[in-house]
């Protein structure tokens, strides 16, 4: 149930794109996304015809840069 010593190894977060579990660890280079695909979708690569996302209206939040991608 609860523990006073959280293990930082297997932290998962909800992927911002697909809301699925995404491993939040250095081994997941796409964190906080679950995969490259979800990350690219969030970055807007879907518009390049490279990634097809049927039935997914996308609203770009340009005011909120992804973590680690601040300019
Ligand atoms: Zn995802």
From TrEMBL:
Protein family: Belongs to the DNA gyrase inhibitor YacG family.
SUPFAM superfamilies in the record: Glucocorticoid receptor-like (DNA-binding domain)
Cofactor info, note text: Binds 1 zinc ion.
Single GO MF annotation: DNA topoisomerase type II (double strand cut, ATP-hydrolyzing) inhibitor activity
Assembly notes: Interacts with GyrB.
Gene: yacG
Binding sites annotated in the UniProt record for Zn(2+): 15, 18, 34, 38
InterPro entries hit by this protein: DNA_gyrase_inhibitor_YacG (IPR005584), Znf_NHR/GATA (IPR013088)
GO biological process, one term: regulation of DNA-templated transcription
Source taxonomy: Bacteria, Pseudomonadati, Pseudomonadota, Betaproteobacteria, Burkholderiales
Protein name: DNA gyrase inhibitor YacG
Cofactor names: Zn(2+)
């Amino acid at each position: 149930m609860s523990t006073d010593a959280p293990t930082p190894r297997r932290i998962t977060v909800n992927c911002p794109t697909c809301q699925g579990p995404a491993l939040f660890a250095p081994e997941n280079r796409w964190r906080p996304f679950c995969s490259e695909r979800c990350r690219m979708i969030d970055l807007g690569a879907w518009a390049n015809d490279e990634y097809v996302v049927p039935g997914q209206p996308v609203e770009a939040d340009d005011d909120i840069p992804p973590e680690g991608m601040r300019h």
